[in-house]
Amino acid sequence: MNVLLVEDEPNVISLIQRGLNGSGHQVSVAMDGNSGLTMALGHSFDVIILDLMLPGRNGMELCTEFRKTNQTTPILMLTALSSTENIVSGLDSGADDYMTKPFKLSELEARLRTLLRRKALNISANNGDSILRVADLELNQNSKTVKRDAKPITLTATEFRLLEYLLRNRNKVLTRMEILENVWDIDFNLGTNVVDVYVNYLRKKINTGSSKKLIHTVFGMGYMIKESNEDTE
Ligand code: CA
């Protein structure tokens, strides 16, 4: 695969470069955020490995800017910071996964494979039915747009994936762990409260201007999206 590595630490660069080259992958390197963004936008990479703390534009800013024109290339964010808050803002800026330094090369490679597999799954899903619906809420998997009562709703990349997962499993109770694994696809300790936080963001956005509740909390179990006559809280 063709990898873009945006990283300013020579040690990390040579570790990743040696490792991935050894497995037969091409690695292009940018050592600051601005040239990283230019390269990311100017070429087609299979995956982008993005450091958070960078000279010039930081990883989060690069990610937000890149996602305005490209929503599909997987991004793995690297950082020395590991608090939930940083992880959440990294994922919210449009990264698909997150790894804290120091890490093992084998883990990095495993995560890259997972990202590529997920991208392939999304592409094949997009060749089938592209509209998911519940009541007057509609999600288009091809154009990545959401409407309620024909009015567009703007979601972040993570909110979109969350809604997509709920809609694919409509009328089914999903536990916080299931949501975490399927929407974030990460197995480290992010904590399931991130699910509650995002369900609340999403609820607020899809409830704007509508009175009927769609995302239901199933006490002690998790969440479910379904059509109902219950009013929004
Ligand atoms: Ca750095």
Tell me what you see in this structure.
The protein is an alpha/beta fold. It folds into 2 domains: 2-125, 3-Layer(aba) Sandwich (Rossmann fold); 131-225, Arc Repressor Mutant, subunit A. It is built from 8 helices and 12 strands. It has helices at residues 10-22, 33-42, 59-67, 84-92, 105-126, 157-168, 176-184, 193-207; strands at 2-6, 26-30, 47-51, 75-79, 97-100, 131-134, 137-140, 145-148, 151-153, 174-175, 215-218, 222-225. Strands 2-1-3-4-5 form a 5-stranded parallel sheet, with helices on both faces. Helix 6 (157-168) crosses helix 7 (176-184). The longest helix has 22 residues, at 105-126. The radius of gyration is 19 Å and the shape is elongated. The model has no long low-confidence stretch (mean pLDDT 86). Calcium ion (CA) binds next to loops. Residues 8-9, 51, 53-54 line the site of calcium ion.
The number of helices is: 8
Q: Would you tell me the overall average pLDDT?
A: 86
Hetero groups: calcium ion
Percentage of residues in helical conformation: 40-55%
The CATH homologous superfamily of the largest domain corresponds to Response regulator
The total domain count is 2
Overall morphology: elongated
List the uncertain runs: none
Q: Can you tell me the CATH topology of the largest domain?
A: Rossmann fold
Name given to the CATH architecture of the largest domain: 3-Layer(aba) Sandwich
Termini separation: 48 Å
> For the largest beta sheet, what order do the strands appear in spatially?
2-1-3-4-5
Beta-strand proportion: 15-25%
